[in-house]
């Protein structure tokens, strides 16, 4: 049985957030798309998905739609990208950013999509499965809508790989222990589980690529790591009183002295859907 994600990160239920947190999350999605390390992860994923002209692709859990629009440039005017996200506010933000490419924005849950079987040639699903309660059910749904021979590319974080240097290790451990289920999902290891999940689901030619993201200063890290982002309000952290401020002071000091370091592995895992 999977650990329940109900007590979970802001990304699991963006529409249920306060206006302040909703704004932070939307800004985070935009900034992440511009971050050089996330772009590096996405280049690996593009190579694995191999989008081609005329294809119909699904971006499952598409957020602000940045990747969907990039995919649309690859598939050209004869293709279509379905950008699906279960948050109405995120989908509305994605529609506001629409650039006229062949992207269709829809709201829906990747665990039960209102799409016919075998309707897409490929799926991109980036940093979404860590937020759902049943990742295998979501993967089965992604397979259902993909035609035999189509590609599925999953990208997800391995929060257990997160490591820091330059700050007190003990304090970092306290922060991470309390952040679990608040700033990160309860499920800490989604990235490394993707390969086994796709193999078990019967995909062929499954490849798995760990991409280790390196952050050499707190500002760069804060885009991807909420636990070094001073904009994230105290009530979201789940840490005992004073711990967040003490930790953020250490982060700032390490940044000022040039000794801050953080690393996080994000996995890119892809495979081909076989004939049912
Ligand atoms: C960390 S964001 C990633 C967004 C986008 N894939 C990207 O990489 O920029 C996670 C997204 O997954 C969406 N999401 C979470 N659970 C979902 C579900 N069950 N079905 C569809 N979307 C979901 C959230 O609304 C959010 O937009």
Automatic annotation (TrEMBL):
Question: Does the record bear RNA-binding in its keywords?
Answer: no
Spell out the InterPro entries in the cross-references: Methyltransf_11, SAM-dependent_MTases_sf
CDD domains (alphabetical): AdoMet_MTases
Q: Name one GO biological process term.
A: methylation
Q: Which residues form the Methyltransferase type domain?
A: 58-153
Q: Name one GO molecular function term.
A: S-adenosylmethionine-dependent methyltransferase activity
Asked if the record carries the keyword Secreted, the reply is no
Keyword vocabulary terms for this entry: Methyltransferase, Transferase
Family matches, as PANTHER family: 2-METHOXY-6-POLYPRENYL-1,4-BENZOQUINOL METHYLASE, MITOCHONDRIAL (PTHR43591:SF24), METHYLTRANSFERASE (PTHR43591)
Protein known as: Methyltransferase domain-containing protein
Species annotation = Actinoplanes aureus
């Amino acid at each position: 049985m999977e650990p329940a994600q109900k007590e979970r990160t802001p990304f699991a239920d963006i529409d249920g957030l306060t206006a302040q947190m909703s704004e932070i999350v939307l800004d985070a999605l935009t900034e992440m798309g511009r971050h050089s390390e996330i772009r590096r992860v996405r280049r690996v994923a593009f190579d694995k998905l191999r989008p081609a002209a005329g294809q119909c692709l699904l971006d499952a859990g598409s957020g602000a739609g940045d990747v969907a629009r990039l995919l649309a440039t690859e598939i050209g005017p004869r293709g279509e990208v379905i950008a699906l996200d279960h948050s109405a506010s995120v989908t509305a933000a994605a529609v506001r950013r629409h650039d006229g490419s062949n992207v269709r924005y829809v709201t829906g849950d990747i665990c039960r999509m209102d799409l016919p079987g075998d309707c897409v040639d490929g799926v991109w699903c980036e940093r979404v499965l860590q937020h759902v309660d049943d990742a295998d059910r979501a993967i089965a749904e992604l397979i259902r809508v993909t035609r035999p021979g189509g590609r599925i590319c999953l990208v997800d974080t391995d929060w257990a790989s997160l490591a820091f240097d330059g700050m007190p290790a003990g304090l970092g451990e306290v922060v991470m222990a309390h952040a679990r289920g608040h700033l990160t999902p309860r499920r800490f290891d989604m990235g490394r589980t993707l390969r086994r999940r796709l193999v078990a689901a019967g995909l062929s030619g499954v490849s798995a690529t760990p991409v280790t993201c390196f952050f050499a200063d707190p500002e760069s890290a804060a885009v991807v790591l909420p636990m070094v982002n001073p904009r994230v309000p105290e009530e979201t952290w789940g840490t005992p009183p004073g711990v967040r401020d003490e930790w953020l002071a250490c982060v700032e000091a390490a940044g000022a002295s040039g000794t801050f370091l953080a690393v996080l592995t994000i996995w890119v895992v892809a495979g081909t859907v076989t004939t049912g």
